[in-house]
């Protein structure tokens, strides 16, 4: 029946892989979020996981594995069994960390299967509510005059808040004292409490705090003002030109996860991104779901590959590395 052992093994692999895909998912799925609970990545993940759970008929449990700008959580998934029961939802940091970290615990372009893009979230430059500068122009002047005093929160090297902060500091040609957290969820607590001065964070974490008057917003990193934050000027309006930063997010599985399971997850992601609750909550938080054409393995692979190439020279010239 089988010409060779290899053919038999291959056939068995196809059979079991196919059988596994047919009954998948038959138990709870874990989605690793590589930042602390309560932050923007966590917020996006919980909304998407809830909608995908409904579609798949199995619970997707969020596990927050923060640290090292998201690379600890990504490393956990890279080493997980490729059975479809461990997923990663991560953002642009997947691409920047490939250049920032000299000893990553995984090979970024070869350790994962790609499920699809989820959303591209704008950022906001925000401060504690009683921070003195009234607008972006005053903020830049104040930061230059008080560079040894002003503190800037981020979620570690490779985080979106780190990337935005790196761009901001190079724009104003002033290094600020950075205060690292395991996510901008806990960083936000300190910003609201006044323990730290500044942060650049995603609208999924800042919109409600800005609307509630708990923090001050200086700018959005978008070409146009956001419908969710109509009173917040763009960075360009504040004099920071070429300061458009979008934090794209994707879902990954460990390398070797079967194509059938990856396809099932991608189809479920596309449905979840059209879920009315996801669409509304994303809009309320200043972002929009990725369209079907982007919520695919091919689109995420292309995005990650191009973003690694885009940020490598920027990071190299900034001379920022993590060991
Ligand atoms: C978070 O979810 O905590 C943020 O994505 C951290 C960051 O990337 O700045």
UniProtKB/TrEMBL annotation:
The keyword rRNA-binding does not apply. Keywords: Receptor, Signal. Residues 1-21 form the signal peptide. Pfam families: TctC. The keyword Signal applies. InterPro entries: BUG, Bug_dom1. Belongs to the UPF0065 (bug) family. This is Tripartite-type tricarboxylate transporter receptor subunit TctC.
């Amino acid at each position: 029946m089988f010409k060779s052992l290899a053919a038999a093994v291959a056939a068995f692999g196809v059979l079991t892989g196919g059988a596994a895909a047919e009954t998948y998912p038959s138990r709870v799925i874990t989605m690793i979020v590589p930042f602390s609970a309560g932050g923007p990545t966590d917020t996006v993940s919980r909304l998407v996981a809830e909608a995908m759970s409904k579609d798949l008929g199995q619970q997707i449990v969020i596990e927050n594995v923060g640290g090292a700008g998201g690379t600890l959580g990504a490393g956990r998934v890279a080493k997980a069994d490729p059975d479809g029961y461990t997923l990663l939802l991560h953002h642009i940091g997947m691409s920047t960390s490939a250049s920032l970290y000299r000893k990553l615990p995984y090979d970024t372009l070869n350790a994962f299967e790609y499920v699809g893009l989820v959303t591209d979230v704008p950022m906001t430059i925000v401060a504690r509510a009683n921070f003195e500068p009234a607008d972006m122009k005053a903020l830049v002047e104040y930061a230059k005059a008080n560079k040894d005093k002003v503190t800037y929160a981020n979620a570690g090297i490779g985080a979106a808040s780190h990337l935005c902060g790196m761009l901001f500091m190079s724009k104003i040609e002033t290094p600020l004292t950075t205060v690292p957290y395991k996510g901008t969820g806990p960083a936000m607590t300190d910003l609201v409490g006044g323990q730290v001065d500044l942060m650049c964070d995603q609208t999924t974490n800042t919109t409600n705090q800005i609307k509630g008057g708990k923090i001050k917003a200086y700018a959005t990193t978008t070409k146009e003002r956001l419908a969710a934050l109509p009173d917040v000027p763009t960075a360009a309006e504040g004099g920071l030109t070429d300061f458009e930063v979008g934090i794209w997010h994707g879902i990954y599985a460990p390398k070797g996860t079967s194509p059938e399971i990856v396809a099932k997850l991608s189809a479920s992601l596309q449905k979840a991104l059209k879920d009315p609750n996801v669409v509304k909550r994303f809009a309320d938080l200043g972002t929009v779901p990725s369209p079907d054409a982007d919520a695919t393995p091919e689109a995420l692979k292309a995005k990650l590959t191009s973003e690694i190439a885009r940020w490598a020279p920027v990071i190299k010239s900034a001379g920022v590395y993590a060991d």
